[in-house]
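hey
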């Protein structure tokens, strides 16, 4: 029952179960696959299986893991540096901080892993260290982690990354690879329904953005709900004239930060393609994404994009959505 909450990843479950059953747990694992398909959940299930002993303490172990207060677990996430503090993406969002660069795994965090592993486990037979988004490690941090992987002691390390190519080959060579796959439509529907997110199934563009990842579908739907309804209704229409294009660009720049605008590009690409199947519209939006990533003035980016959309959209296209 330990892996009952992990749906759609039978190969990963079997590999991890057999490792414990045969008492051949590797010192390091690399969980590879898209965001939101169950890699972090699998890590928690695996720890539960590793830590459960013959004294029927499954509930105690599960509770500690759920509350992130197990003394033999260290969960490492990418962080921002802010006023001398390291903040995860969730902590930065809670403080209302808007950062242009993405969070990263820092050298100091790798040193904390080394210090954590220098003492013996307190309750479990081994330490477990989980490094989320391992692909965000700079070379210095990755090289420091390599030394730990070579001599982990009484520990198992789990690196979570989108692909083996996204991290240093020397790290990959020291890990047992556990693959995670994007899910089919039926499994997606089952997970979203089971977790109370069945309303997402009514939004084809959101599902298209997710591409078989329940986690990405939930995150995309939450982002969709954060956009003001009036703006969302306006932006899914092709402007009929240049004035509408300029007004819409102004409203987007005023209401959304850069991160939300980048997500909006993804949403409009999927939405426009599902409606009209015009490659030129998708190319214009892709150019808008590149400009936003280069820190161009957002309002100007959207003004140019919508004006060009006015020019490429046929009268029939504009009429079909009005």
């Amino acid at each position: 029952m330990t892996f009952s909450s992990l749906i759609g990843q039978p190969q990963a479950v079997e590999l991890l179960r057999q490792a414990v059953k045969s008492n051949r747990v590797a010192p390091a694992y690399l969980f590879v696959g898209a965001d939101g398909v169950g890699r972090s959940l699998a890590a928690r299930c695996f720890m539960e299986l590793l830590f459960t002993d013959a004294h029927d303490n499954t509930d105690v172990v599960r509770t500690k893991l759920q509350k992130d207060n197990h003394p033999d677990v260290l969960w490492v996430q990418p962080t921002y540096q802010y006023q001398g503090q390291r903040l995860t993406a969730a902590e930065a969002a809670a403080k209302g901080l808007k950062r242009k660069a993405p969070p990263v795994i820092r050298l100091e965090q790798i040193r904390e892993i080394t210090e954590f592993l220098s003492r013996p486990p307190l309750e479990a037979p081994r330490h477990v260290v989980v490094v989320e988004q391992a692909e965000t490690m700079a070379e210095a941090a990755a090289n420091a982690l390599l030394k730990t992987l070579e001599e982990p002691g009484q520990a198992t390390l789990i690196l979570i990354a989108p692909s083996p190519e996204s991290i240093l080959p020397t790290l990959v060579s020291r890990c047992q690879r556990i693959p995670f796959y994007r899910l089919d439509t039926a499994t997606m529907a089952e997970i979203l329904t089971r977790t109370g997110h069945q309303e997402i199934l009514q939004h084809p563009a959101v599902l298209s953005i997710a591409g078989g990842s329940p986690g990405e579908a939930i995150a995309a739907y939450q982002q969709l709900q954060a956009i003001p309804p009036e703006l969302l209704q306006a932006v899914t229409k092709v402007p009929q004239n240049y004035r509408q294009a300029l007004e819409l660009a102004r409203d987007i720049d005023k209401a959304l930060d850069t991160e939300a605008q980048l997500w909006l590009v993804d949403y409009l690409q999927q939405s426009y393609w599902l409606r009209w199947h015009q490659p030129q519209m998708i190319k214009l939006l892709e150019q808008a994404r590149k400009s936003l990533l280069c820190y161009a003035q957002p309002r100007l980016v959207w003004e140019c994009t919508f004006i060009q959309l006015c020019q490429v959209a046929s009268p029939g296209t504009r009429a079909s959505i009005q």
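The beta strands are 28-32, 73-76, 79-82, 85-88, 127-131, 155-161, 176-179. Residues 318-322 have pLDDT under 50 and may be disordered.
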